[in-house]
Amino acid sequence: KNNLLIKNIIILLVSGAIAKALGMIGKIIYTRIAGVNVVSLYTLITPTLMLIITITQFSFPISISKISAEEKYENNDILKNAITMGFIIDTFLIILVLISASFIANMLHNKALTPAILSVSIIIPFITISSIQRGFLHGKEDMAPASITNITEEIVKVILIILFLPFAIAKSNITAVIFIILFNVITELTSIIIMQKTINKKYINNNYKPKINIKLLKEILNISGPTTLVRLISSVGFFLEPIILTSTLLQTGFSSNYITLEYGVINSYIIPLLSIPSFFSASIASALLPNITKLYVNKKYNEFNKKLLKLLFLSLIVGAICLSVILLFPKQLLILIYNVNFGVNYIYLIGPFFLILYMQPTLSVALQAMGKTNKLFLTSTISMILKYSVLYIFGKLGFGMKSLIFSIITGIIVTTFLVIIIVMKEIKNKSK
């Protein structure tokens, strides 16, 4: 079991590193081909896209992984019930997108974005299917197929950008944005085909007819519901952040151009750069979930605790090494990756606190294994309230863009330590 866990972690880390590198190459190619206007339009629609994807995924990679690992239900039943639930959610979501597209575009003060928002509805079912497949394979501790798709998605995306984006830009900027959104259909479809081949070969019983299981549906809902609510809070925060920041800073004498530029620097360059090491902890957490779920279900609490501590330590070590490189060579990395050399001061201010952030995926997975995902909703709510209170108060006090930095740091610290307290309390109760 230990060897399998180590093997899965290595697979996820290596594939994650390759996918991240390809993604970075793709981002560089995309920004240089698309130009400022297309990038700006796509950035404007990104919060809406992320919100829809959050609902579409419905945390299936987590819930299906846990249920698949427990092996209480037939594989055919798990997949049938998950896909049925997913398509019901998709139907309502697609209708909602079609009805509200124009309203959302008006909220973004750009009516031209309406067709781009409408195009998001096309990618919804593809994201649902691939999310369920990933969760199922992770639960079976079969990491290779999903890891391969992480790489193939990035390769396909880069090819599509090079071949079709220039043609779309020649038509119009909005056409280019629509193409970028619809590229997700091709990338997700590629992943679905690869993962389904493995599922059909290894896990599907052709002699067993799957059936709807109300108990199974409730179990999926009980895990996915709270976790999705947590992510929705983050998505809502994504909407609120620039609104609060702009209104408070304008009132304290900062210009609109300054706010736009500095906010763009922090969110487009600094946060993504500091978040690069997080794929290590996220990969470790993905490999961890099936293993520690079995330990917890079988009441092997001492083994559960030891494995959790080891993986937290591993997340910190890997994160510290990566963060050290970023802090030592911030300017060089910004130039290499984004071809910009500003924002270094923000890296020094916020960077050290990202080491705490790298623990979050492992801690969240520990809560999911314990069946305490409802607690994540509470921690995220408290964190969001405190984070945006700090943003508003320090903005009003005239701290400028540092108010945003302070709010980000607050969110990282509060969320991480609240989850640590909950995990420790649960471990203490089970150890009695």
Automatic annotation (TrEMBL):
InterPro entries: Poly_Biosynth_Transport, Polysacc_synth. Pfam families: Polysacc_synt (PF01943). It is found in: Cell membrane. Coiled coil: none annotated. It comes from Candidatus Aphodocola excrementigallinarum. This is Oligosaccharide flippase family protein. It is a multi-pass membrane protein. It comes from the Bacteria. Its main location: membrane. One of its GO terms (cellular component) is plasma membrane. The chain crosses the membrane at residues 9-29, 41-62, 83-106, 112-133, 176-195, 228-249, 269-290, 311-329, 335-356, 376-395, 401-424. Keywords: Cell membrane, Membrane, Transmembrane, Transmembrane helix.
